[in-house]
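User: ok so my PI wants both of these folded by tonight, can you help

Assistant: No problem, let's get them done. Here's the first:
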Amino acid sequence: MATTKKKAVRKARKGQRIRQVAAIPYRVREDGNFEVLLVTSRTTRRFIVPKGWPMKGKSGRKAATIEAREEAGVLGRTLKQPAGTYSYWKRMPNGFIRVDVVVYLLEVAEELADWQEAANRQRAWLPAVDAALLIDEPDLSTLLRDLTVPSANAA
């Protein structure tokens, strides 16, 4: 992943927009309400959604699914259409770069007890409106606050 980060920094220095993909893992409770899964970042320990750099040869949707498995330890079905986008300032070793993130909803089918980044992250299931209050990025907070998920019967 280090080469992807270096490419992103080079693009940012040229004034180009940088892109990432993210997943919002969700589950529908028995009462019909839904919750989203947040994870803590590795460095600042703030709550975020699983996200990462695009992956060569993989669609944004597939890359978001992989990030959710690695960072949050969840498996499931990622919806084809993005749920939205947001932008944020990413902390890099020598400054910040502006990143645009395409977000996909992932309907969680399985929550793993042990996963790749389990030692570095905590996860929390919350109603989306509560999750929105914990998120520092204003655009992502708004996306979470206004989020609606497809009903269980919808494809």
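One down. Here's the second:
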Amino acid sequence: MAIQRQSLREQIETEIMNRVGAGEFDMGESINEVTLSADLGVSRTPLREALISLAQQGVITRVSGKGFRWAPISERDFTEAVQIIAALECLALDLSPASELFAIAPKILSLANSFTATEAPAHEVDSHDDTFHELLTSKCPNRRLLETIASHKVALRRYEKFFVSATDRIERAASEHSAIAQALINEDLPAARAALSANWLNSTSRIAKALANKESAKIAS
């Protein structure tokens, strides 16, 4: 028997975000809790708990005396979130002992070279990217910084679901991960830092292109 590791609130959050990714909701519109709870087949209490959690993550906004509303989302919001994560991960790299980074450089390069697709389903790209960046920052001794990065990435994935569903294929520059790893192999920390920043900042244009393709497909249909 499969063991369910998610709480009911978390299951509701996941389902809501899957539907957001599928474009079922109009961003900026009010949320009818009665209708949504009936549609999801859950009671109002766990639904409200999920909505409060999503509000804390910036996915929806809570309007005093008026319930919840889908938070407007834009490419600019996504770009600003990426800029923050890029800066934080570069700081994590700066704080990591150079000798420890160089020691794991071959493992980082091997991981980079294990996924060289230039286009893949969004969930596969997300999974690989998370694993790669977690290894890259694993030697940072500042645990609070790593926790901050992790929390921002959760929010970033929420943003991405507005733009790209799990089944959409998105472009990726596989060479960017290899460039980061190769710089560490060469014990060139400034080059690794520059490549890491570029990897994050370049992702905004790829997500924007995926969004444009998705919108074009909607218009065509």
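The two ends are 41 Å apart (CA to CA). The chain is about 70% helix and 5% strand. Good luck tonight!
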